[in-house]
Amino acid sequence: xxxxxxxxxxxxxxxxxxxxxxxxxxxxxxxxxxxxxxxxxxxxxxxxxxxxxxxxxxxxxxxxxxxxxxxxxxxxxxxxxxxxxxxxxxxxxxxxxxxxxxxxxxxxxxxxxxxxxxxxxxxxxxxxxxxxxxxxxxxxxxxxxxxxxxxxxxxxxxxxxxxxxxxxxxxxxxxxxxxxxxxxxxxxxxxxxxxxxxxxxxxxxxxxxxxxxxxxxxxxxxxxxxxxxxxxxxxxxxxxxxxxxxxxxxxxxxxxxxxxxxxxxxxxxxxxxxxxxxxxxxxxxxxxxxxxxxxxxxxxxxxxxxxxxxxxxxxxxxxxxxxxxxxxxxxxxxxxxxxxxxxxxxxxxxxxxxxxxxxxxxxxxxxxxxxxxxxxxxxxxxxxxxxxxxxxxxxxxxxxxxxxxxxxxxxxxxxxxxxxxxxxxxxxxxxxxxxxxxxxxxxxxxxxxxxxxxxxxxxxxxxxxxxxxxxxxxxxxxxxxxxxxxxxxxxxxxxxxxxxxxxxxxxxxxxxxxxxxxxxxxxxxxxxxxxxxxxxxxxxxxxxxxxxxxxxxxxxxxxxxxxxxxxxxxxxxxxxxxxxxxxxxxxxxxxxxxxxxxxxxxxxxxxxxxxxxxxxxxxxxxxxxxxxxxxxxxxxxxxxxxxxxxxxxxxxxxxxxxxxxxxxxxxxxxxxxxxxxxxxxxxxxxxxxxxxxxxxxxxxxxxxxxxxxxxxxxxxx
Length: 717
Prior knowledge:
CATH class of the largest domain: Mainly Alpha
Oligomer: single chain
Mean pLDDT: 79
CATH topology of the largest domain: Hypothetical protein af1432
Largest sheet: 6 strands, mixed
Number of domains: 5
Structural class: alpha+beta
CATH superfamily of the largest domain: Hypothetical protein af1432
Number of strands: 20
Helix content: 40-55%
Strand content: 15-25%
Low-confidence stretches: 1-12, 115-121, 559-565
């Protein structure tokens, strides 16, 4: 590292700079000299740049560094804050920064720089990829995220000169991403400021009206607030407890959200009074709770102990709701001074309060684990990853137990599947059922605080696409997507190979006779890595087998020698690459036809399916002749409609006839006619083939109460 260069005192913002340097008194002189050198470098690099407001650009890095100094962070972090825009906006390089200020500073600045040199299809894709890059830097070094949050804090404070549409876009991004990250890191003060400032930018009129109403309400309820606070202080003093008691302000955005979500009026939201009680040690938290419960009656079910079970961001407090004077609800948070520091400053309390306590160090470890778990879910494209991370930033959490008593925090609304993937990817991929509080429960069951969850696995079980409709964690969503995508690609490649083979044979060419060079040229021309990728594209409907076959043969000049008109044979259990249409539910023995749907593979319909008549006549080129390949043991779902006389026990008779014909009932529903003489029964049954279906229908038709029976077809394709 080079020695710190000498530089002239700054001309721009002299007073602000002097105040900034004066606040570095917690660092040794050698570190202060490095920071002065970093400021001089940044000032020179940004010398010809102005902010939208017309101010010199250096005012922004200086403000970001000042925020970092408020957290008492180290010299490397302060230097990185001063230099955070130099790589992105000036000619500075990572190597140059590493030589002048050290490798750690250069790594942090690189992590904070956007990917400006790359081209993206859309703003969303660029945003997602930049976020992924920042997250990777955050996982390596926590200081990166704190500098980024300080950067966003200053940017959003100074956006008045920016275009209205850009202001709103950045404010929404702050609400969706950066405010939840601040909360997840326990930075509650910063979290509230980011929310309120973004809210004022998106809804300026609503924010102004709410701010005026809040100011008026404070004056009107000052007397009641004072009375409650004095009563609480007197009671705690009488119990021999030294405590600080102060009111808890609601933020504008939290008031707005509560009014919107719960459809409450402003006066209803403000009717709840909030207080914080700060004591010196943990046992006194519980003594204070007892004293307050004897002062005012507690509301049943409103007590939460976050000291015994801390939140994932390290937050600890006792929460209780009391019925105060005139029936007024009073929310009270009771905590120690150390807990209060962590609640206000989260991860940053590690630097702010270096008193040898373990809680801030534990919080850092937890945060690193959380960041690493986010990076583990990096499957698929950037946009999917970005959405998955958004899901993981939900602040509301439930706490559940593993069979061994370990506590796991999951987002509110998380299911047994989310729990399974939180334990391990293999547990999630092979989960077949769950026991919740020792009782069997469906995998889609939402978990509640205190649930004891045990996952039952099976080597034959695999993720179901339906799970994506109800899982809540980004980790579970990305792992399910990854499994389905991998499985689908394998199955699609097999289908694509068969489709291309059929097409080549119909053109009179045996695939084995095509030279290896022709296959390699085909792969290269499509920009793929292997022939399997070409097959997968055909199987997924992204490329037509007829086009691929003709391109393959074009260079070789191969002539037809085998008659065309070949059909593709299927089993019906190929997996996701070949799907049986739910509208007509084809079974072996039915005349069938297939259609390649882009991204979904092949969909199989019966020839007479009403849902495809229009498409078959208007787009005949999209349809492929398909036939069943004999296979034993596979069962297919199928719907039948049975009309019966309205007599007692008739449903049991029909069900018995279905069972005797070796079929299983998957679902049944009923509808009666207005005169109640007849009832129509709708069954979904499992059938092996048309011969088996004929046997089932024959058994039902023999019952004297049955007046009509038919197979149901039709519906949406």
